Amino acid sequence: MTSPHLHPMLNVAIKAARAAGNLINRAALDIEAVRVSAKQTNDYVTEVDQAAEQAIIATLHEAYPDHGLWAEESGRREGKGRDRAFVWIIDPLDGTTNFIHGFPVYCVSIALQVHGKLEQAVIYDPTRNDLFTATRGRGAYLNERRIRVAKRTQLSDCLVSTGFPFRPGDSLPHFMQMLGEVMPKVRGVRRPGSAALDLAYVAAGFADGFFETGLSPWDVAAGALLVTEAGGLVGNFSGESDFLEQGECLAANPRIYGQMVSLLHGYSRIAPPAPKPSPA
Prior knowledge:
Blueprint: H1 8-28, E1 36-40, E2 43-46, H2 47-63, E3 68-71, E4 75-77, E5 86-94, H3 96-101, E6 107-114, E7 117-125, E8 130-135, E9 140-142, E10 145-147, E11 159-162, H4 172-182, E12 188-190, H5 195-204, E13 209-213, H6 217-229, E14 233-235, E15 248-252, H7 254-264
Parallel strand pairs: 3-5, 11-12, 11-13
Antiparallel strand pairs: 1-2, 3-4, 5-6, 6-7, 7-8, 8-9, 9-10, 13-15, 14-15
Helix pairs in contact: 1-2, 5-6
């Protein structure tokens, strides 16, 4: 179902997300029958990821055949002509490991980037029929209800979400140091297993902050626009807005964001080196 009040491109993204969600829900009725393969250790793809991605691409392509695509399973496809600046960033099933185990925390994530800026976002949770949407400059919504980031101002009162390193080459000791820095200073830490939903929950005020490393653009693009349109901030661990392709993401309301940057800046992989002291 689309709405005449929404941006036309957002309506198309909603249609695509719901089509993918329907496929995911049908498959969830018999998870044991789903074929699973490993992209690398602890990093899985199912036939459902692939079918959902194709359903999304078919819906988008029907409406906007010359737009570019940047999808988790099928890679990048450049746009054509005047529409080269439009790029759809797609994660057909964020939280695949949860899905494989029947753990109901996963979603469809679709964002539209225009001239390098995120303009439209949809995150659809098919298990709850929750639809998060945002258009740049028009606010963020959950099931047509306006959402805002939480108003807490003290880190000690906050619930923060994260994701654990799970791929070969990820530095678990580095993450554990970072987690050890954060845990004593917050009310609680959660690891749901879907970065896109983590960001949507920050936008809705269900969580106060989020941080994670090892992320790809399709994990965070839609959620990042949701957070900023809900009044929050998103960036890398140094607090800079350049995060989409940097592999690290931090999101929170403005007051908590600054406090988290103070904690995590030293753990950034892309932080500029500290200036050398001036000679006496």
